[in-house]
Specification:
Layout: E1 2-16, E2 20-27, E3 31-37, E4 56-63, E5 69-79, H1 88-104, H2 112-125, H3 133-147, E6 167-171, E7 176-179, H4 180-183, H5 196-204, H6 219-237, H7 244-261
Parallel strand pairs: 3-5
Antiparallel strand pairs: 1-2, 1-4, 2-3, 4-5, 6-7
């Protein structure tokens, strides 16, 4: 058992007994780890906000090889991103970022570049205009798929191999964009994110997080793209992509749309 230190993003937590909790973190040096914070729920607050979800903290813990849980010794808050908590959309989309990591990443497999990308995504989501935030999530999902080894095909039709700017849609089942000619066949799986919404995926594949534009898609179009990428990840990772944060955001958007009609 070794005492180690790393920068970490808190993904989620849950109670453990009456006074403690388990904190799931994505660390830069040790990958995803599950840490036990003893006594944190007694009211003493010795860790403060450092072990709350979406916080970036420096953590010191006892790394136990071959064990699921490790004990936290120290935790100090490094970045809090308060802007994420002041807006429902920012909070939900940032929540989707950490949910994806928690859902898809195995424990104890570090990836320094993915860690930096994740922290950068949270930073960008706290500063960019709200209309651009869905694009940040889409870009993050594409990068995560790439780092997990199943990047979708976004430059050529996955059926015929032709490069075509007039995309009919994105097929999660086939793993990429489908051109209009090939989409006419009834034997093809249903393609989501049709037309202009599919074309934006090719643009996102070539941009950085902070180069995402503030395109004003309708809420339905935004949900269509997110659903398409989520379906792709679900099919290739074999994990459910029904994220609580995105289900909540969909409810908020439906309520906003209803309020606007009234």
């Amino acid at each position: 058992m070794a005492l180690v230190t790393s920068r970490a993003i808190v993904l989620r937590d849950h109670r453990l007994g009456e006074t403690s909790k388990v904190v799931v973190c994505y660390t830069r040096d040790y990958g995803k780890v599950r840490l036990v914070a003893k006594g944190v729920r007694k009211g003493g607050g010795r860790f403060g906000a450092a072990l709350e979800p979406l916080m970036v903290s420096g953590v010191v813990f006892y790394l136990r090889e071959g064990r699921d849980l490790s004990l936290v010794s120290q935790a100090s808050l490094e970045r809090a991103f308060p802007e994420l908590r002041r807006d429902v959309t920012r909070m939900a989309l940032a929540g989707a970022v950490v949910e994806l990591l928690d859902r898809l990443l195995p424990d104890h497999e570090p990836d320094g570049e993915l860690y930096e990308l994740t922290e950068r995504a949270l930073e960008v989501m706290s500063t960019l205009p709200v209309p651009a935030l869905d694009g940040v999530l889409w870009r993050f999902m594409l990068e995560l798929a790439t780092r997990l080894g199943y990047r979708p095909e976004l430059s050529r039709c996955v059926v015929c191999g032709a490069a075509d700017d007039g995309w009919a849609g994105f097929s999660p089942e086939l793993g990429g964009l489908v051109c209009r000619r090939c989409s006419a066949g009834d034997e093809l799986p249903a393609a989501l994110a049709a037309g202009p919404e599919a074309a934006v995926l090719t643009e996102l594949a070539e941009t950085g997080l902070d180069a995402v534009t503030g395109r004003r898609f309708t809420p339905a179009a935004r949900d269509d793209i997110t659903r398409a990428l989520g379906s792709f990840l679900e099919r290739h990772a074999g994990r459910s992509m029904k994220l609580k944060s995105l289900e909540f955001l969909a409810q908020v958007r439906r309520l906003e749309a209803q309020t606007a009609k009234d």
